[in-house]
Amino acid sequence: MPETTPGYSAALGAAEHHATTQNLRDQAYTTQLARQLYQRYPDLLTAETDLAILRARLAIVTTFIQNPIYDATTRHALAQALNLPTPEKT
Fold this sequence. Notes:
By secondary structure, this protein is an all-alpha fold. It folds into 2 domains: 1-40; 42-90, no CATH class. Helix content is 78%, strand content 0%. The chain is built from 3 helices and no strands. Helix 2 (42-66) packs antiparallel against helix 3 (72-81). The protein starts with 5 loop residues before the first helix and ends in a 9-residue tail after the last helix. The mean pLDDT is 83.
C-alpha cells in the first residue's frame, strides 16, 4: 500500500507541517491586525464588548419570554415592552 511507504509518510508530515505553519502565520496576522485596529480605534473594542453583553442579556430575556413555566401575562407584557415576538398561547 502506498500509505505505508516512507515517501508517503514524509509527504504527509510535510503537508501537516505546512498547514500548521500557515495556521500560525494566519493567527499572527490576525492578532497583529486586531492590535492595530484597537490602537487606532480604541472605542471599537468597548463597543463590541458592550454589544456582546447586550446580546447575552437579550438571549436570557428571550428564553424567559418563551418559557411556558412562567406566567403568560408577564411574559406577554415583557415581550411587548421590549418589542420582541410575543410568546405563543398555550
